């Protein structure tokens, strides 16, 4: 595929209209691009800020055709892009990211293998596609361990933490029906992530290492700079850059890692798109992950990712919306981002807050004052 420069005034097509698509679109609109989005929901978060909304299923061939007609470049905000749609757009439009990375990252086994082949450390894992493989995997990896579905899992869904044989009961009915992998449970100090962006021109840039704190398997907050030794910060950054090259990245890749209690950095999983743990960059970096992504797919020079100030990013889930809005008068220190979703269901990601301060402790204190 020939590399093109897409200039402001031209149209960026986005597959998927959730919050990631919305924030890509906002960045694109600021730069003067037009935006078209494909999503089955009419008033989805991205459609609210886009110029054109194609309301259709992701596998609707007519919708792919419409997208190819109006967009000068097409990108995606999620992993489960329909293969036929991607194929069509590759042929009839400009899809500089291709979809090879989607194919790798949507299957945990493929993804782990690719990370391992790139020479990066992963926790020991084995495939579990049958009762026999389960037995063999347990014999080799033992307990504690975690059984994960290879496809479709997110926010800890499709995972079974195993301390002993008896924890297997719940998963047993699915063994052999859905493919799993068994992973050794890694005692870790910290969960961190690095967002790396690579342009169609080959230029690469990397964001500051983020420290992620999960609650109930959902990202609760992110702290930057991560509270880890500089040597590990360097190691994590190198891992992300190395993976970007090894996977021939175009666009954005989020790399989730563990800092083990053994002092080593392990790669856990990746996502080939802007990521929740990179939302801090909207207010705390020179260039946000969303603007960088747009620059990358349009072939523009990448921006500086320098951290302007320490920051905490706090996710706002459905149950938090009213408590946060009740405290609106206390939010002078915080940048509120709500995604325009109408139904505030418990656990649904509705927005986030970025709070900047003079130190990591300062931003933690500020966040605590908000409750
Ligand atoms: P998801 O796609 O659901 O985000 P992850 O692999 O990131 O899946 O797992 C969710 C969370 O479970 C991680 O953020 C981490 O806290 C925990 N976890 C997953 N795998 C392991 C492991 N091998 N050792 C220790 N903790 C793990
Ligand atoms: Mg994860």
TrEMBL record:
<comment type="pathway">
    <text>Purine metabolism; IMP biosynthesis via de novo pathway; 5-amino-1-(5-phospho-D-ribosyl)imidazole-4-carboxylate from 5-amino-1-(5-phospho-D-ribosyl)imidazole (N5-CAIR route): step 1/2.</text>
</comment>
<dbReference type="InterPro" id="IPR005875">
    <property type="entry name" value="PurK"/>
</dbReference>
<feature type="binding site">
    <location>
        <begin position="153"/>
        <end position="159"/>
    </location>
    <ligand>
        <name>ATP</name>
    </ligand>
</feature>
<feature type="binding site">
    <location>
        <position position="214"/>
    </location>
    <ligand>
        <name>ATP</name>
    </ligand>
</feature>
<feature type="binding site">
    <location>
        <position position="108"/>
    </location>
    <ligand>
        <name>ATP</name>
    </ligand>
</feature>
<feature type="domain" description="ATP-grasp">
    <location>
        <begin position="112"/>
        <end position="298"/>
    </location>
</feature>
<dbReference type="InterPro" id="IPR040686">
    <property type="entry name" value="PurK_C"/>
</dbReference>
<dbReference type="InterPro" id="IPR054350">
    <property type="entry name" value="PurT/PurK_preATP-grasp"/>
</dbReference>
<feature type="binding site">
    <location>
        <begin position="183"/>
        <end position="186"/>
    </location>
    <ligand>
        <name>ATP</name>
    </ligand>
</feature>
<dbReference type="InterPro" id="IPR013815">
    <property type="entry name" value="ATP_grasp_subdomain_1"/>
</dbReference>
<feature type="binding site">
    <location>
        <position position="148"/>
    </location>
    <ligand>
        <name>ATP</name>
    </ligand>
</feature>
<dbReference type="GO" id="GO:0005524">
    <property type="term" value="F:ATP binding"/>
</dbReference>
<dbReference type="Pfam" id="PF17769">
    <property type="entry name" value="PurK_C"/>
</dbReference>
<dbReference type="GO" id="GO:0004638">
    <property type="term" value="F:phosphoribosylaminoimidazole carboxylase activity"/>
</dbReference>
<feature type="binding site">
    <location>
        <position position="191"/>
    </location>
    <ligand>
        <name>ATP</name>
    </ligand>
</feature>
<dbReference type="Pfam" id="PF02222">
    <property type="entry name" value="ATP-grasp"/>
</dbReference>
<protein>
    <recommendedName>
        <fullName>N5-carboxyaminoimidazole ribonucleotide synthase</fullName>
        <ecNumber>6.3.4.18</ecNumber>
    </recommendedName>
</protein>
<dbReference type="InterPro" id="IPR003135">
    <property type="entry name" value="ATP-grasp_carboxylate-amine"/>
</dbReference>
<dbReference type="GO" id="GO:0005829">
    <property type="term" value="C:cytosol"/>
</dbReference>
<keyword id="KW-0658">Purine biosynthesis</keyword>
<dbReference type="InterPro" id="IPR016185">
    <property type="entry name" value="PreATP-grasp_dom_sf"/>
</dbReference>
<dbReference type="GO" id="GO:0046872">
    <property type="term" value="F:metal ion binding"/>
</dbReference>
<comment type="subunit">
    <text>Homodimer.</text>
</comment>
<dbReference type="GO" id="GO:0034028">
    <property type="term" value="F:5-(carboxyamino)imidazole ribonucleotide synthase activity"/>
</dbReference>
<dbReference type="Pfam" id="PF22660">
    <property type="entry name" value="RS_preATP-grasp-like"/>
</dbReference>
<keyword id="KW-0436">Ligase</keyword>
<comment type="function">
    <text>Catalyzes the ATP-dependent conversion of 5-aminoimidazole ribonucleotide (AIR) and HCO(3)- to N5-carboxyaminoimidazole ribonucleotide (N5-CAIR).</text>
</comment>
<dbReference type="InterPro" id="IPR011054">
    <property type="entry name" value="Rudment_hybrid_motif"/>
</dbReference>
<feature type="binding site">
    <location>
        <begin position="268"/>
        <end position="269"/>
    </location>
    <ligand>
        <name>ATP</name>
    </ligand>
</feature>
<comment type="function">
    <text>Catalyzes the ATP-dependent conversion of 5-aminoimidazole ribonucleotide (AIR) and HCO(3)(-) to N5-carboxyaminoimidazole ribonucleotide (N5-CAIR).</text>
</comment>
<keyword id="KW-0547">Nucleotide-binding</keyword>
<dbReference type="GO" id="GO:0006189">
    <property type="term" value="P:'de novo' IMP biosynthetic process"/>
</dbReference>
<comment type="similarity">
    <text>Belongs to the PurK/PurT family.</text>
</comment>
<dbReference type="InterPro" id="IPR011761">
    <property type="entry name" value="ATP-grasp"/>
</dbReference>
<keyword id="KW-0067">ATP-binding</keyword>
């Amino acid at each position: 595929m020939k590399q093109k420069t897409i200039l402001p005034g031209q149209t960026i097509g986005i597959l998927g209209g959730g919050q990631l698509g919305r924030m890509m679109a906002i960045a694109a609109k600021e730069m003067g691009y037009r935006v078209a989005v494909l999503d089955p929901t009419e008033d989805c978060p991205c459609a609210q800020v886009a110029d054109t909304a194609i309301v259709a299923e992701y596998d609707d061939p007519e919708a792919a055709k419409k997208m190819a007609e109006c967009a000068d470049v097409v990108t995606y905000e999620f992993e489960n892009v329909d293969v036929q749609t991607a194929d069509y757009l590759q042929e009839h439009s400009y899809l500089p990211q291709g979809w090879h990375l989607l194919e790798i990252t949507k299957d945990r086994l493929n993804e782990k293998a690719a990370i391992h082949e790139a020479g990066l450390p992963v926790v020991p894992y084995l495939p579990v596609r049958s009762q026999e493989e389960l037995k063999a995997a347990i014999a080799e990896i033992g307990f504690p361990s975690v059984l994960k579905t290879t496809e479709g899992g997110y926010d800890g869904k499709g995972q079974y933490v195993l301390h002993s044989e008896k924890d297997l009961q719940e998963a047993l009915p699915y063994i052999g029906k859905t493919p799993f992998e068994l992973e050794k449970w890694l005692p870790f100090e910290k969960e961190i992530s690095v967002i790396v962006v690579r342009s169609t021109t080959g230029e690469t840039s990397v964001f500051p290492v983020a420290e992620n704190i999960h609650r109930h398997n959902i990202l609760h907050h992110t702290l930057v700079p991560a509270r880890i030794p500089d040597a590990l910060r360097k190691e994590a950054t190198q891992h992300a850059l190395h993976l970007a090259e090894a996977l021939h990245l175009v666009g954005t890749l989020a790399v989730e890692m563990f800092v083990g209690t053994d002092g080593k950095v392990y790669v856990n999983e990746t996502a080939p798109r802007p990521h929740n743990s990179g939302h801090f960059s909207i207010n705390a970096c020179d260039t946000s992950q969303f603007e960088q992504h747009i620059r990358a797919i349009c072939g523009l020079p990448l921006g500086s990712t320098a951290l302007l100030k320490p920051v905490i990013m706090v996710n706002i889930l459905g149950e938090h919306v009213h408590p946060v809005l009740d405290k609106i008068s206390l939010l002078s220190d915080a940048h509120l981002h709500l995604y325009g979703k109408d139904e505030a269901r418990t656990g649904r990601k509705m927005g986030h807050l970025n709070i900047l301060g003079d130190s990591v402790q300062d931003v933690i204190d500020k966040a605590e004052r908000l409750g």
